[in-house]
TrEMBL record:
GO terms for molecular function: calcium-activated potassium channel activity; potassium channel regulator activity. This is KCMB1 protein. The gene is Kcnmb1. It is a multi-pass membrane protein. One of its GO terms (cellular component) is voltage-gated potassium channel complex. It is found in: Membrane. Keywords: Glycoprotein, Ion channel, Ion transport, Membrane, Transmembrane, Transmembrane helix, Transport. It comes from the Eukaryota. It comes from Lanius ludovicianus. GO terms for biological process: detection of calcium ion.
Length: 200
């Protein structure tokens, strides 16, 4: 009687472990799909792939410009912010070009090097932009990214999705997939050993 209870408990445990492993594999596949349709297209779309050294030539803060809260929105309510323009000399080409914070900055407003994400307080935004401008004046030389193909003559300070970030994004679903497969394999080995022992 006790043996039957132990066998039943073992089967229940194996079933739960097998469901856990299959669930982990399914979740990891969903994460792979989500990363594939969100992050990967932005990574492959970016042409600023080569790192070089930029040297600040001049910085300029123009009067307030307007930018919509949502990209592509037809709403006329725009928020004003000071337009920071940073011109740099690219070591790789020796050209004088405009620097942008990321790829998204160029799409949102090609006239400014920096576009604030939110307007919580106009004074805070102005102070932040002045701080960024002073940092560029303080640190004259820094790494940046340019387009080796020449389709974009400007440069960006940092990529939205760098190679390390993409690898880090794939790390967690890979670990989950590996763990799920390992659980499934261990359950199958346990079942095989149980069947072999019972046969002997």
């Amino acid at each position: 009687m006790l043996g039957k209870k132990l066998v039943t408990a073992q089967k229940r445990g194996e079933t739960r472990a097998l469901c856990l492993g299959l669930g982990m594999v399914a979740c990891s596949m969903m994460m792979y799909f989500f990363i594939g349709i969100t992050i990967v297209p932005f990574y492959t779309k970016s042409v600023w792939t080569t790192e070089t050294v930029c040297k600040v030539l001049k910085t300029n803060i123009k009067d307030n410009v307007f930018c919509p809260h949502n990209e592509g929105s037809e709403d006329e309510e725009n928020f004003p912010y000071p337009c920071l323009q940073v011109w740099v000399n690219v070591t790789a080409s020796g050209q004088e070009v405009m620097l942008y914070q990321t790829e998204d900055t160029l799409e949102r407003n090609p006239k400014c090097s920096y576009v604030p994400d939110k307007l919580e307080n106009s004074k805070e935004v102005k102070a932040r932009i002045e701080t960024i401008a002073s940092n560029f004046k303080k640190y004259q030389t820094f790494p940046c990214y340019y387009d080796p193909g020449g389709t974009q003559t400007n440069v960006i300070l940092s990529r939205l999705y760098p190679s390390k970030g993409l690898l880090f994004a794939f790390l967690w679903p890979t670990l989950m997939f590996t763990g799920g497969c390992l659980i499934i394999v261990l359950v199958k080995i346990s079942q095989y050993v149980s069947v072999l022992s019972a046969w002997q």
